[in-house]
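Can't attach files on this board, so I'm pasting raw text. These are the components:
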Amino acid sequence: MTSQTVRLLRFWQAEREALQIEMRRNPKVILLGEDIVGAAGRESQGIIEGWGGPYGTTRGLVQEFGRARVVDTPISEAGFLGAAAGLAESGYRPWVEIMFPSFLAVCLDQLITNIAQKYHLYGRQRSVPVVVKTLINNHGVLYALAAHIPGLKVVAPSDPFTVKGLTLAALRDEDPVVIFDNISLLRNEGPVPEGDYVLPLGKARVVRDGSDVTLVGISAMTGICLQAADALAQDGVSAEVVDLLSLAPIDEATILASVSKTGRLVVVDEGFPQCSPAHDVIALVAQRALSQLVAAPLAVTPPHAFRPFSGPLNAAYAPTSQSVQVAVHEVVGSRSAPLVSATR
Amino acid sequence: MTKERVVMRDPATISEIYRTMQRARQLETALIAALTAGKPAHVGHPGSGQEAVAAGTCAALRKEDHLYCAHRAKHWAIAKGAPVDGIASEMWGKETGIAHGLGGEMHMRDDNVGFIGSSHIVGGSLPPAVGSAMAAKLEGGDRIAVVAFGDGASVQGTFHESLNLAAILELPVLFLCENNQYAESTSVEYFSRPIEIYRKAEPYGIASVRVDGQDALAVFEAVSSAVHAMRADRRPRFIEALTYRYLGHFYGDKTSRYRTPSEESVWTQRDPLIVFEAKAAAAGLDEGTMRTIRDEVAQEITRAMRLAEASAYPPLAELGASPFAHPMRAGGWDR
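---
Top answer:
Structure tokens for the assembled complex are below.
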């Protein structure tokens, strides 16, 4: 990978590049989703493509691969996600875009019954390797719903580099994978190697070394953790940041190794706190590394409530660098906790 | 089109239909102007061009009839009688909004006027409308339930499940398809069979018609006929109103990516306000009255926008409130 040219790409461009690489490599890869091309049926009017995906992830792919492989669907989430199961059972590799997280709820039965369950309960004969790509946005952060279901691998990439590598890994994995992109990251730029590379599913990565506290971030919260770590360094607190990346399975070894080094844990999760990855990570450490801890671990999450529409409430809902700093000072026991009003 | 009953066009109803359309159009225009001026207002899902469907439908309803709608909701909330200033404030996310600024366009409701809410899931509102009709039948009165949804909803499972339920249980629910011919950037000609949505009601044995959705009086007559029959026979009905959204699926969506200018101009020439005004004299509304209505609405919208701009946001403490209507613990939720 080191010999490859590295460029700056936006998150959605890196994801599109992964789709393009795999569609060229594997003719069995089929994309399905609402408006992933758009303007269907308008070729005679000179319109080849409409939206190209609501956020551009699939833009231009129809021109290379045609509408037989880049399929616009009606607003029928249960129908087309279930159809993706059938495609996978017939040897294809469907990548399905569920536009918004709340639309995932519309087709949860297909995801659970026809995709996740189909391997184990049918005598472990054949898995259903569908890749579902959906979003984290104001409608909700529903990765915990997916991570709760046995048989689904769930990832939350945090930057352009990780979305490309994880998408390529997902499209080659023998199990179904649900990818949660974050709307707040889609336009972010980051270095991305040209060509083919995969990041292993089920692995976290340490994105900053530290010695006093382990911060575990998920998706956009990894960036928040890095911001907090910079600020904490000014206060003399050395924070290690782990980018969780995989919510199912969770990379136990990386978390336990980090906590064994730092003795303290703060998990930052943008989702509803009940039955969340944040609390899974804390439970893991409580069960497996309690003796390593020198302070009680903390989760920094939104309140257990839907995200309000109103601007200021919306802005104050999710964890921020400030609320992470407050939590870290509490865990570290520093006296110099900054005076900020944080919502946890 | 069914002609179950000739509807009397009384002047008060006619002018209310016009007032409703003016409110919807002028509010959206004001929200766009505020947003363009850099103010923290939201336009949401534009309804300009589709006002006649909501105005004509709701003029044929009573306050106690329940209305459910979809994500393109402002004109429906206005038509059912929810206060315009509350809707404007909601679009600014202010405490004075009809959902106290918590929900925005897609989570508005006002039970005082029988507006039971918008929804952000396409096809999501049909099943609860069926349940409301079930309750209406159990109650024994002549209330009905109405659900307004788009052409895109007609390919969701909930659409077919709801029509079947309403048919087998014989429930007084009016399925009102506001067909603007596009699900986001995708044309109904691509995504639906049959392309004529009203025909999907036929196999369920539900009487259905298609009406010109740019003609508020035609919508009013069709809905009045259906509702009159439903209050007596307590059975479902289906109306498809053919219309067009002038702007994008959301504000900022460029329609040129998926529609031609020539197609758009065909529809903007049939603007529901123009169509109405041309028919108004015959319907008993003179130009002076219409001008008065326009001016009154303009003042009303100006006041509503001023109130919205001046109002406070909901307090940040709202974030710590319990997610339960009846908290289990004193002091609410502890997270």
